[in-house]
Design goal:
single chain, alpha+beta, 13 helices, Beta-Lactamase, 5-stranded mixed sheet, 5-stranded antiparallel sheet
């Protein structure tokens, strides 16, 4: 009952009891013959003493509760929301403690929610293919994702380093763009081939300090795909127009050849024989041009890969009767996952190129690696290799160093590999020759199910 009273009611009750006792005592003392002055003085002292003793029963728990609440608020100030108040009271202080615990629970949930969102955001940023750098006004890197670390420091941590220490290890074109705050596309060549990067900058204030956000995106694949799509569109257009013209020319050449043969049989003249040879040449060139355009059309209409599990030995057994090569190392036990027809075509092109590059057959090697993330096929030879200029352009459609080449072999290989979601790389071998690496993504668990 006492705990259910409000603080004001308790103080009022204590005061009334003290006044009642203090007022009753003088009358009793006077009745027993005591002096009036002494009686009222004794009554006042007793009343004040009782009031103080009774008020202590009210203020003592109140003081302890306020001290507990103060400690909780100090924890709030320090960012610790894990402490709850254990005040089992029914008065105002108890209600304040209940509200405190409710607010603490809300703040704990909010902090956990924010922490989960921060983890999610950091995971997304770290797994982003774009390189992200956050630099303070003194030039120190205060945040960098995984792509930035691999691009600028070979995967090693760069947080805390300055741009002045990092940029000398970058390609010159990229370092210049970052240092001069230039935006746009920048191309450079390294050991992995040619790359085109888009560099973007933004400046903002954080904690009253100027910060700089640098975004670097590898646009090589996107630009290559766009370029290939343009070439395909041009090829389809040219093939359509050539086929529309070649069909009637071929038909007319055939008719003219038949007419020349009839004239030759009737008259036997030399001019008729010459005319027949002319029509025969026209027909032969039409057939050659038709085959030529059909080869380009196959490149332009390459279907989407139909992937399936393929034992590596079966793939190599299909290649060996067509081109001889040596297997380097052992084959993985795990089967490959790709379109067998398209990958077989790509490997045939690479083996054919190795022979045409002058490599001895015994020096042509095929090596296969496979793990949970990727599958890699490597073709090596000891031919003439490629110059740096040729390496930069070898994968472009229509580019060829062969007198009779049409420039589709390596372009078709790259198109097949990239259609699988992989990449193709060329590099010269020490001691002469070329190494071509086909990297293909491994079958994911989602695809397996």
């Amino acid at each position: 009952m006492w705990q259910r009273l409000t603080l004001e009611a308790r103080i009022t009750a204590v005061t009334l009891v003290a006044v009642l006792v203090g007022a009753s005592l003088p009358f009793l003392l006077i009745r027993f013959g005591a002096d009036k002055g002494l009686a009222w003085t004794g009554g006042m002292l007793l009343g004040v003493t009782i009031a103080l003793l009774l008020l202590r029963t009210v203020t003592g728990p109140l003081q302890r509760g306020l001290s507990t609440l103060e400690g909780g608020l100090l924890n709030f100030r320090d960012g610790d929301f894990s402490v709850s108040l254990a005040l089992d009271r029914k008065d105002e202080l108890g209600r304040i403690a209940t509200l405190y615990n409710e607010v603490g629970e809300i703040l704990r949930r909010e902090r956990a929610h924010i922490h989960q969102r921060e983890l999610l955001l950091d995971t997304v940023i770290q797994s982003s293919p774009q390189a992200l750098l956050l630099v303070d006004q003194s030039g120190h890197v205060i945040y960098a994702n995984s792509s930035a670390r691999h691009l600028l420091n070979h995967g090693r941590p760069i947080q805390g380093l300055t741009l002045a220490k990092l940029l000398p290890h970058c390609p010159v074109e990229l370092a210049s763009a970052i240092e001069k705050d230039e935006e746009g596309l920048f191309s450079f060549t390294d050991s992995d081939g040619s790359h085109t990067m888009h560099v973007g900058h933004s400046v903002f204030s954080l904690n009253a300090q100027k910060h700089r956000l640098i975004l670097i995106r590898d646009m090589t694949r996107e630009l290559t795909r766009a370029e290939v799509q343009v070439w395909k569109k041009v090829i389809r257009l040219i093939s359509h127009e050539l086929n529309n013209s070649l069909a009637p020319i071929s038909s007319m050449a055939h008719s003219g050849m038949m007419l020349a043969q009839r004239i030759d049989e009737e008259a036997g003249s030399a001019d008729a024989k010459s005319l027949a040879r002319v029509f025969d040449t026209i027909a032969e060139r039409c057939r050659h041009l038709t085959e030529f355009t059909q080869g380009y059309a196959r490149f332009a209409k390459l279907p989407a890969p139909s992937c399936e599990e393929v034992p590596w030995q079966r793939l190599l057994d299909r290649l060996l009767p067509l081109h001889r090569f040596a297997l380097c190392g052992s084959l993985p036990e795990r089967p490959g996952y790709f379109d067998p027809v398209q990958i077989e075509q790509a490997l045939l092109n690479l083996l054919k190129n190795a022979i045409e590059a002058g490599s001895p057959v015994d020096d042509i090697e095929v090596e296969v690696h496979c793990n949970r993330q990727a599958q890699q096929i490597i073709v090596r030879d000891r031919g003439t290799g490629m110059s740096e200029k040729v390496l930069q352009q070898a994968l472009l459609p229509f580019y060829s160093t062969k007198p009779q080449g049409v420039g589709l072999g390596l372009a078709l290989c790259r198109e097949i590999v990239e259609a699988h979601g992989g990449r193709l790389q060329l590099r010269n071998r020490s001691g002469g020759g070329l190494e071509v690496s086909l990297w293909l993504p491994q079958r994911s668990d989602r695809q397996a199910s």
